[in-house]
Amino acid sequence: MPDLPADFTLLQVTPELETGGAEQTTIDVAHAVVAQGGKALVATKGGRMASRLEADGGRLAHMPAQSKNPLVMLGNAARLIDLIRREKVSVVHARSRAPAFSALWAAHATKVPFVCTYHGVYNAKSNLKRWYNAVMTKGDLVIANSEYTRQHVIKEHGIAPEKVVAIPRGVDLARFEPGVVGGERIEALRKAWGVAPGERRLKVLLAGRLTRWKGQGLLVEAMTLLKARGEDRILLLLAGDDQGRKGYRAELEAAIAAGGLQDAVKLVGHCDDMPAAYMLADLAIAPSLEPEAFGRTAVEPQVMGRPVLASDHGATCETVVPGETGWLVRAGNAQAWADALLEACEAGAHRRHLMGMAARLRARRLYSVDAMCEATLKVYAQILGAHIPGPHIPGPSVVGSERSS
User: Fold this and answer.
1) Strands 141-144 and 308-311, how do they pair?
2) Across-strand partners of 9?
3) Alpha-carbon distance 23 to 19, whole Å?
4) Residue among 375, 334, 123, 339 nearest 216 (CA)
5) CB contact at 8 A, 405 and 293
């Protein structure tokens, strides 16, 4: 790890600590800073992952960081200015667009180095939205969570390539380690999810919040096509919180019922023990309809020795090697996914095992949380050593909706 000043204090700003890759990365980096002897603060609304942050020695600064209301954003900027001065913050790191405005204004006012992580490939159909997205490029450096995202940032915003560094998200290799997942954890999930003892079908896991672009509906359609062909060798497990999207969950339940798939597709809800979930499964699947900026649900299972079926766009083209660590499938095409699921079945347990072992070796080498944290701390050291206060952004205007990867 790079050496940081003895009094180093990091302030990360993120909307919530509920669930997701950006939130996990926030906690991982905070842990790394504390391990180096620094202080780690996170300004956020809070959420179910906040206890993990505090257990790692980080500190929570509660504020409505998720708000896109311009007046609230201005209020957050004032709160952050006070926090930065009171805690003698060394670097401010924003991880989402709405709070990035408040964080940028606060960093500018206090002349503290500012960095952003571009966690998603944000849509921009208007100049206003492009301006809104561009706040993530106003730091001393921009961190992109994959090479795919880095190229998008450079092209979309026309900024110098040397100002954007790709740091892939990291997986906690100590947590995602098959050897530490006891049989009782797997058995507890099996019972909670209603998976029969000795289930012989191919257990396929899609881990991700219930939102349309993650592709749950597409997979239900693919399963319906397989059933029409007389295929019943697959058990699909959809693990994820609906986060208030009751309409989409109801739509999925209706499609499952209409296809007569109640015994073949299970909506199992939020899962706190993903290592055990991947061990319960035979195969992971990531059928996102839109390109993933990184896609940790295609990487975590590979670390656990599970091959992956993933959409053939976005960063999954970097993280999955077709025929070696998994399969890439035409995005959005239910028939292609039905065929791919059948191919994974036909591959047999031995070939899937070999692919899983190849996936594990590659993912452990490329996507460890230690490598991600080390690279991030190097960015902090770099901008501390060559800090020039960034450009001022005028006050907020009406802002659009936001999707994180």
Assistant:
1) unpaired
2) 39
3) 6
4) 334
5) yes
The token pair at 286 is 């990531």
Question: In the block, which residue shows the tokens 């561009």?
Answer: 134
Cα–Cα distance, 66 to 73 (Å, whole number) = 9
Map residue 351 onto helix, strand or coil: helix
**What would the pLDDT profile of 359-402 be if each residue is shown by its tens digit?**
999 999 999 989 999 999 999 999 998 764 544 444 433 333 33
Average pLDDT of span 18-30: 87
Q: 205 pairs with which residues across the strands?
A: 237, 284
Q: DSSP letter for 184, please.
A: H
Give the pTM. Answer: 0.78
Distance (Å, whole) CA 391 – CA 140: 9
Of 172, 137, 135, the residue nearest 29 (C-alpha): 172
- Over its C-alpha atoms, the chain yields an Rg (Å, rounded) of 22
Amino acid in the structure at residue 245: R
The helix or strand, by DSSP H or E, that contains position 344, with its residue range, turns out to be helix 334-366
pLDDT digits (tens, 9 = 90+) for 311-325: 999 999 999 999 999
Contacts of 45 by beta carbon, 8 Å cutoff, 6+ apart: 15, 16, 17, 62, 63, 64, 65, 66
Question: What is the model's pLDDT at position 401?
Answer: 34
**Do 226 and 234 meet the contact criterion of CB atoms below 8 Å apart?**
yes
Sequence-ordered list of residues with C-beta below 8 angstroms from that of 150, at least 6 positions apart, any chain: 144, 164, 165, 166
Q: Enumerate the H helices of 235-325 as residue ranges.
A: 246-258, 274-280, 296-303, 316-319
Angle at 300 (CA atoms; ends 65, 36), nearest 5 degrees? 60
Contact 285, 308 (CB under 8 A): yes
Q: Which of 185, 188, 149 is nearest to 168 (CA)?
A: 149
